[in-house]
Amino acid sequence: MHVEMTQSLPATLLEEVRRLRVAVWRIAGAQLDPARECRYFADDHDEHALHFTAFDATRLIAAARACVHENPFEVPDAALFGRHLENVDCPVGSINRLVVDRSFRGQGLARYLDLQRLARLRMEGCQSVVGWWAEVSGSTRLAALKDLGFRPFEPGAVVTGPLGRAVPLQLAFRCERHLR
User: Fold this and answer.
1) Which distant-in-sequence residues (6+ apart) come within 8 Å of 56 by Cβ?
2) What is the mean pLDDT of each run of 10 residues along the chain (180 residues)?
3) Cα–Cα distance between 144 and 99 in angstroms, integer?
4) Structurally, how many domains does the chain consist of?
5) Rounded CA separation 61/107 (Å)
6) CATH number at residue 106
């Protein structure tokens, strides 16, 4: 297995990443709206984001994305965070769109991609990072994000995101003990 970080994915690989996103989230039980599916899985952030892709030989087995923004209201899925973005330290990073092929789950790949993305965002000068946990990702994923230092913006707050019920999260890099 090998992992690559790329600023701009070739169109064929980007399409493969988008297909993997749809496949993984469907298997997880996300109620995807076919009319919105293409727009959601092909948003404008793919053009400027840092893409982390993992391959088993030549087969794409995982993908994740990270973005850097000076304006917190420009992060992917900003509406999920609402007014909480007013107090986010900038530049702000966003981790999003993590998917791992189900036959490769449970091997630490998601954590590895999370650590790679957080290290890169720190290198890019981000003061904080936002992301959101979707219920379809399971409680293990939420525990992993909390272990990295992410905390809900508001305890008990649940919103409806593109994949169903979601919890908006934030990590301030001054709480970086988990990144060493």
Assistant:
1) 1, 104
2) 90 90 82 59 85 95 96 93 91 95 94 96 95 90 94 89 87 56
3) 14
4) 1
5) 12
6) 3.40.630.30
- DSSP secondary structure string for all residues of the chain: -EEEEESS--HHHHHHHHHHHHHHHHHHT----HHHHHHHHT-GGGGTSEEEEEEETTEEEEEEEEEEESSGGGSTTGGGTGGGGGG--SSEEEEEEEEE-GGGTTSSHHHHHHHHHHHHHHHTT-SEEEEEEEGGG-HHHHHHHHHTT-EESSTT--EEETTEEEEEEEEEGGGGGGG-
Exposure string for 116-129, b = 16+ CB within 10 A, e = fewer: bbbebbeeeebebb
Domain coverage including residue 151? 2-179
Please give the Cα distance from 69 to 91 (Å, whole number): 6
Structure token digits, residue 48? 């400027």
Other CB atoms within a 10 A radius of the CB of residue 27 amount to 12
| Pair of tokens at residue 163 | 């994949």
pTM: 0.89
